[in-house]
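Hey everyone, long-time lurker, first post.

I ran two proteins through the pipeline my lab uses and got sequence/structure pairs for each. Pasting them in order. The first:
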Amino acid sequence: MAKKVRNKVAWIVFVLLAIGIGLYPLFYLVTSGEFGLLLGKDEAVRTSEVWRFAFYGHIIFGGLALLSGWSQFSKKLRTKKLNLHRNLGKFYVISVLVSGLCGIYLGIYATGGIIPSVGFISLGIVWLFTTIWAYLAVRKKDLTLHQGMMIYSYAACFAAVTLRIWLPFLTIIFGEFLLAYKIVAWLCWVPNMIFAHLWVRRKGLTLA
């Protein structure tokens, strides 16, 4: 009984975090001024139309991926509304493709130099790779591989949440935003992938 309660609480927290951060890009759309990560960019970068296009593409479709992706882990949705599950899955894949490609481009201009750049570019590649693999697997009716890759994919997607959890704590600990940002470029997603690996093993999903 206690385990069921813990699982339910964990699920609720998981969904609320996904929805909360998924809606976060709205702040950039409804405010006229610049805030958040935009403030830390050089003027030459901020005024680049290509960079701004990639930035808004990344945060908007990344938010949509967060908002739609959590539903793919709902057993009730898969069993009772399979068509909705499939349509949301397709929507998630499209959102990831747009956000992931934009994210890789943005990674080139990441604040702090080569360390965060490689971290965020690697995240984008892993996110795209696992999502495409999950899609191809379900097309081949390999549901085990599909489920496993979706766990990895959403773990990468959830980096948007863990980044916003870790960054303020690291900034307080080190007393410096730039150092915290260099660390969080890796910390926001590598532990997520380790957790995903343990989850896949626990569920007995063979990915060979």
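...and the second, right after it:
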Amino acid sequence: MLDEILGLPAHPLIIHATVVLTPLLAVAAAVYALAPRTRAALGWAVLGLAVAAPPAAFAARQSGAELKDGRFSSAGGRLGERIAEHESFGTPLVLAVLALGLVSLGMLHVLRAARYGRPVEIAVSGLTVLLAAVAVYYVVRAGHSGAVAVWGS
């Protein structure tokens, strides 16, 4: 399903959506959580990114699994180790981006409704910022390990 796009391996093409959308969601959600004056301008961006980033991360993971199965299933030695390391970040990245997306949607609701009270608003905002950091960590680790797997060093 996600093996090729126009004859090229899909994974190197699909990952760009995750590499762009995840940090954008992380920054937009964190700024929305921490800077109330920006909320009117950022609300729709956070909403759109919270909906788009998790499927992009899932598609990147799935296309990577298909690339490995189709072209690198017998890779051994140093390349096999690098691919395994890169693959190990796939599921945590998808889970982190999914969690950030869901919590960002919850944050939008809580902060717009203004009926849950300050402690709930602080907790949801703090959780959003924490998950933003976790998602960025995993997208950087996955990206770096993928680059090392391809380019070495």
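Reply from user beta_strand_b:
Welcome! Quick read of the second one: The mean pLDDT is 94. The first helix runs from residue 10 to 34.
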